[in-house]
From TrEMBL:
This is Fe2OG dioxygenase domain-containing protein. It comes from Flemingia macrophylla. GO terms for cellular component: cytoplasm; nucleus. Keywords: Cytoplasm, Iron, Metal-binding, Nucleus, Oxidoreductase, Vitamin C. Involved in the regulation of shoot development and salicylic acid (SA) homeostasis.
Amino acid sequence: MEGKGDSVSSFTSAVSLDQLGVSFIPQRYVLPPSQRPCPQDVPISTTLPIIDMSNLGNQSLMSTTIDQIRIACKEIGCFQVIKHGIDISVMDEALEVAAEFFNLSNEEKMRLFSEDVHKPVRYGTSLNQARDEVYCWRDFIKHYSHPISDWIRMWPSNPSTYREKMGKYVKAVQVLQNQLLETIFKSLVLNPDYLHEEINGGSQTLAVNCYPACPQPALTLGIHPHSDYGSITLLLQTRSGLEIKDKNNNWVPVPYVEGALVVQLGDQMEVMSNGQHKSVIHRATVKGAEKRFSIVSLHSFAMDRKMGPALELVDEQNPKSYREFCFREFLDFISTNDITKGRFLDTLKMKKP
C-alpha cells in the first residue's frame, strides 16, 4: 500500500507490520521533522483535573464540582473523571475483547475494511488512508453505536463475545455522557435539560484503537493532532499515550489513571458555547515496546441536525462567533481533506465585524 491507489489486497496495517517484526517503519509513516513528537523543552505547568463524579450527588460539594468542570472546559477542554458509575469489570471486558479483535487474522479483519468514512462499521488504519499523506501508526474498528438496537447487528461477530461485552460498555458510557452534558450545560448557566431531545436522538460512534509497539516511535504518531467533531468524547485507555495541546501550545501528556475516563470537548461544544468552552487539540504517541489500546466514544447530535451557538450565550458583548454545522458536514470535510493541514472548526469561525 505504498500509494493511495493500491488495491485492498495489498493493504498492510500497522498491527500487521508489528507482527512481521519490522525493524524500521515504512516511509509512509514517517512525519516531517517539524511534526514529530519530541521531549518537552520547557516544564509543563498544566495540570489535568481529576473530577470525582460522585460529588455531584452531594449537595454541599455539587457547586464546587460544577465549577471545577467549568474551569477545565474553559481553560483546557479536557479532564478526567473517577467514580463515574461504570463498573471496572465492564471497562476491563471491553478492553479485553478489543484486544481479541486485533489479534484476529488479517483476513478476518479485512472483511470489515473500508476507506469510506460514511460507513457505519469499518476497519482500517491511519485516520483516512485514502487522503493522509503520512499514515498514523494505529489500527481501528469504528462503528455507530446509538441507539444500540439499530447498529449492534452490524458490529463484528468475531470474537463471539464482542457485541455482548462492547455493548455493555456502550450502554454505560451513553448514560455517563448524558450526566456529563447536563453538568457542562449547568457550568454555562444553561438549563441542564438544554437540547435534551437532540442529545437522546444524537449519535454515538465508537472507535476502538490498537497502537502497536513501534520500532521508531520518535518518527511517527499514533494519531495526528486534531480535535473531535462532536460535543464530548470519552476515552478509556490501557496506558498513557494521549497528549493534549494547552493554551500555551505545549503538548501535555495525559497520565493513565486506573479506572478513570478522559473527557474531551469537541467542536460542537466550542460552537454551542460560543467559544466559552474549548475544543481540545490532541494526538497519540506510540512506544517502542508497548502496545496500547483505547476505546473512544464520540458523542454528537444527529447526522443532519444543524447546531450553532446557544442563543442564551450570544449578546452585544459576545456576538455569534461560529456558523451552524452538522455531523455530515464534518464527514464530508475529512473525506476530502488531510486534517493535518487544517481544522474543521476553523471553517466554522465567523469573521469579527
